[in-house]
Amino acid sequence: MNSEFRTGYLAVIGRPNVGKSTLTNRLVGAKVSITSKKAQTTRHRIHGVLTTDDAQFIFVDTPGFQMTHKNALNRLMNRSVTSTFADVDVILLVVEAGRWGNGETEIAKMLPADKPVVLVINKIDRLADKAEVLPFIAKVSGLHDFAEIVPLSAEKGLGTDALLAAVARYLPVSPPVFEADDITDRSERFMASEILREKLFRNLGEELPYGIAVEIEKFEQEGDLRRIHAAVIVDRDGHRSIVIGKAGERLKRISTDARKEMETLFGGKVWLETWVKVKGGWADDERALKSLGYD
Ligand SMILES: Nc1nc2c(ncn2[C@@H]2O[C@H](COP(=O)(O)OP(=O)(O)OP(=O)(O)O)[C@@H](O)[C@H]2O)c(=O)[nH]1
Question: What protein family does this chain belong to (predicted)?
């Protein structure tokens, strides 16, 4: 192995809708491995891993920034900031070409001084003339001491290699944490739980109970069909109704969103059964939804 191999943790942050998910998915794709070679040094959940010849990029979840809820930033300021930035090596702040608004100003205030922040200027495909980005770069470079500024289009895949090259420099020299190509159904299982978790975050917004977790209890494959049994685990009985929603509608929406994304990712039908479990005891009688999807 390359003795200069680098491995590090990255947080992708930014205002809602700037393209964080598009960027992360473009970089990571479905290639996720959960076989850790050594103890994880992060408290974060891993969103995805990209391994190249020279480096391993480990993308961590940044829930505070993934919520579309208008109070997401307040919430983040109150309690998530430290944990979002703890343990990562590089922060990728994503903005849209030509747009630096209040959201960006607020986020910039929270950036830690001791971590490299790479500014990603996304959606440059929208610019009629790519040179239009130059005055914007000049402007934003004065707003924070960015380690690098990289214009790109996450959707079109333009400039993403340049981003990786720019980011790799800030990762510590260290062997990979994850196996490079170990794509097994365990990794699909992992992706399934991450997708469901993300849908919970999105749909519950500010109501997201503390300590909520997802457990994939069964993951079976028959041809192209995957049968997945997932439990959403909450701390207290009162949290269950929050997740389930009126007449089970919320959990149904969450599960449908999750199933659709799983089907796209896995390239086949998914039969997803989801229910809510209160930590410490099963609540099968309250099983919210029996079978979803596979229509
Ligand atoms: N034109 C263009 N659109 C993009 C690009 N990247 C993302 N988008 C679009 O921007 C919208 C938001 O993208 P997401 O990746 O969901 O943004 P996000 O920052 O993850 O959003 P939240 O999860 O709500 O915080 C989607 O409609 C994307 O298709 C890009 O490079 N160019």
Answer: Belongs to the TRAFAC class TrmE-Era-EngA-EngB-Septin-like GTPase superfamily. Era GTPase family.
